[in-house]
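Hi V.,

You were right to ask for the full record rather than a summary. Here it is.
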Amino acid sequence: MNGKKHSETGTFSPDGMRAEILNPFVHKLELDNTYDKIRTAIFTVILLPFRVIVICYLIVTAWFLACIGLYGLSEEDLRKKPMTGWRSKLRFSILSLVRLVVVAAGFHRVRVVGREHLPKSPRDAPVLVIAPHSSFFDAIAIVCLGAPSVVAKADTARLPFIGQLINYTQPVYVWRDDPNSRQNTIKEIIERATSKEDWPQVLIFPEGTCTNRSCLITFKPGGFYPGVPVQPVTIRYPNARDTVTWTWEGPGALKLLWLTLTQVHSSCEIEFLPVYYPSEDEKRDPKLYARNVRDVMAKALGVPVLDYTYDDCRLIARAKQLGIPCASAIREISELRAQLGLDRSHLEVHLASEGLKGKKKWLNKEEFAQRLGVPYDINSQRLFDIFVQNSSGLVNFADYILCAMFLSLPHAPLSHILSCTFRLYDETHTGFIKCDTFEEIAIRVLGLCREDAQNTFRQVDLDEKGYITYEEFIKFAKEKNEYAFLFVSDNSFKPKTKPKVQ
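Predicted structure:
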């Protein structure tokens, strides 16, 4: 379980397996006691510089050999046929150097379990499926597996030094901005998996993004389209402190790298599960195949499954960028609303269009359920708990309705949600918004800080009335390029968050 704890309550995911409503895209990591802080400070001075120097030397050396091995080969050559001759033999030297990088990083304990299940040849299981995907340190598994061809984001090819090492595995690159990328990736995987040439195994992280390992999210079906046997491989990090998990909300890459390199040692466990041979039904239905393999891996890991996807990450990123209340829990909120039937009733949209109109703004848990017209049960309680203010024990109902509007109208221009927000936070119900109320609105929908919100208010309120209206703000926003995002749909949104190593 990797130290993850789950509550006893849960729901059933669509495929029937019991699973809690979790947020797999959040990871919290702090040095919470004096001993850890002092130890980390000491090792930052003593251990970190030594490790960084050794790692850099090894990576640069491996990169230099990779450059020699790739000399004279175009991208098309790498995709057309597997390396042979001296280039293939050089692969072993590069791999040996990268294995030393793993040791230098402090991973002295990489335990490999289940090697007896390895296929006799790559052709017996041409696709390797690794989960859960939670960190750039998952590259350790790639090293331990002999550097198979990875399915990775095209951006990784441009990473300094590391890009050439990835290129040497003859990867299958995914271009997320290309509408045909999915079909091209599937086609290339099928060609390699069914080829008679001596291609390395194709390695996929079917979740497509990083999670905190509390569950397995939806497996993308791309690697299962060939209908060939796959080798499931699980990865764990059984460490006292989790310094490797890299999610959409949590420590950044540099902080994780620093904290990991200042540990005396770190552990990683890689387990080979028995080769999974698809049935005829699974060969015809890649999504069924992917779900069944996920179930097998989840059982081996002892974690639940949840039908979360990369699109959920995009939704979370957009909500956070705009400042929507409780953005990091947006997927959990969506799940709870669906279970309460709120996603079908459109009640929240109606409430948003009306505004609060003299109704109570702060609600307790019973009033919250009553206002939404749902029973007070475990689901409404959990929804309440997400929005509750710890200081008062109450929920700002306007915050909840704003979040529900964002979920109900995911592709609508933000200006439509903004108009509802003006009504929701207008406590005078006159349409005249004072500066402090506009600050509240701007923080929650425009993603502005308080100072920027105040400056914007002053620019709109040129005649210094002390208030503005929605119409005045929209007229101002249409003349400013920085507010162009208010008038476009979500279809072109690109999350401005850290990329995930695939």
